[in-house]
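[SOLVED] Predicted holo structure with zinc ion

Edit: marking solved, answer below. Original request kept for reference. I posted the sequence and ligand SMILES and asked for the 3D complex as structure tokens.
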Amino acid sequence: MSANDLVLGTHELPRRAGEMKKTRREIDAPADLGVEMIGVPEGSPIALDLVLQSAGEGILVTGTATARLLGSCVRCLASVAYDDSFTIDELYFYPGREAEEDDLYVVDEQIDLDPALREAVVLELPINPLCRPDCLGLCPICGRNRNDDPRHSHEDAPTDARWEALKALNLD
Ligand SMILES: [Zn+2]
Ligand SMILES: [Zn+2]
């Protein structure tokens, strides 16, 4: 496996509008496919299930990329892992068109899926992944994981002098 697994040849696809070619392949994830708290580990498998379609001024690539995500819960830092599918939908223009920013092109009758994969995956990833929707997070005082001990509290052992001052004012 190499980075070239992300490059698809298109010479078998006639340039007549409507012609299509299906392709399924498993690739190794490229580096840095993710956001800060979660992503697809480099080298882990990604299943691509794609349709390449001649579409007038270029080749439309649609389909899905399925991968295992690995990350950390933003509240308690426990590891988070699950499979997800991402929708790929990109038009690669044939050469000879006036280039605009972010345009993708068919180069030497090949399509480089790397930018399409990145856009599909990175835009869909949660910025704040959670180990479970109601994760209780870490105790702000001692750092203990409150999911392990939901009733954990420090009410009996105040450690902050300001609390003592407030308590002194609360005469009963
Ligand atoms: Zn959590
Ligand atoms: Zn605590």
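OP edit: The radius of gyration is 25 Å. Thanks to everyone who chimed in.
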